[in-house]
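COMPLEX REQUEST
Ligand: adenosine-5'-triphosphate
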Amino acid sequence: MDLTVSSVSHRYGTVEVLRDISLDIPGGRILCIVGPSGCGKSTLLRMIGGLEMPSSGTVLHRGAPPEGCLNPLTFVFQDFALLPWRSVEGNISLALEDHPLSRAQKAELISDVLTRTKLSEFRAAWPRQLSGGMKQRVAIARALAVNPAVMLMDEPLSALDAQTRELLMDDLVTLWTRAPFTAVYVTHNLAEAVRLGHRIVVLSRRPGMIREIVEIDMPLEARCDGDPVLEAHKARLWKLMRDQAAAADMELQHG
Ligand SMILES: Nc1ncnc2c1ncn2[C@@H]1O[C@H](COP(=O)(O)OP(=O)(O)OP(=O)(O)O)[C@@H](O)[C@H]1O
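STATUS: Structure written out below.
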């Protein structure tokens, strides 16, 4: 399934947040959205996911969702959004509850995503027993369990320390390489964007407008920290963002 964002603009009251955003989200690719604080990245993601309606413009879904898709669009949030009173398995099964699946089918889906996210040994653990990185793995497993057409990821690694972030980036690359999924991935971390993004959309400061769309051809599994091609992309992205980020920062500080 492909998504097309067409001339999306949005205001909250008198505040113009997004202006005339048009972009294609191709199936089986990871599209990253970067931009300075407050430029409307999360707002755009919520609109792509249908959680909010734009003031004008449309988000079109074209083509059928993948086979076995239970929810076309699922979110992965920065704060994991796990239910503390449910085990790892219980949190994942929550995503399957409203679907007409037999007990055996549910068990198979859960076992599959637990294996893919390296959580099999932790299926009975409680969220409070898990590190931040493990909690985010559970959230990713829960999102994958419904075999979504598009995974909408809002700063999924931002709450984690640098080493855990690296490990989870490796995990996401492995997951994608084994079974490519479509994702829209919001981040302000450019290292994540160049490591995970096939396409990177750079937004200006608020009102967020598209400044540039950067394509990175290198296969995800060939990308590694410090690679000169990726470093060059990162430097270019930072050049595009630096003045905007500084201006946005001043704006927030002065209200
Ligand atoms: N529900 C809302 N009502 C009013 N204003 C909102 C609402 N949601 C977001 N905003 C405002 O819209 C602007 C864009 O917010 P958004 O969270 O989309 O930006 P962002 O680029 O994701 O920011 P950050 O990088 O800091 O997370 C901000 O000024 C924010 O205060």
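REMARKS: The chain has one domain: 2-253. The helical segments are 41-48, 88-94, 103-116, 132-145, 162-178, 190-196, 228-253.
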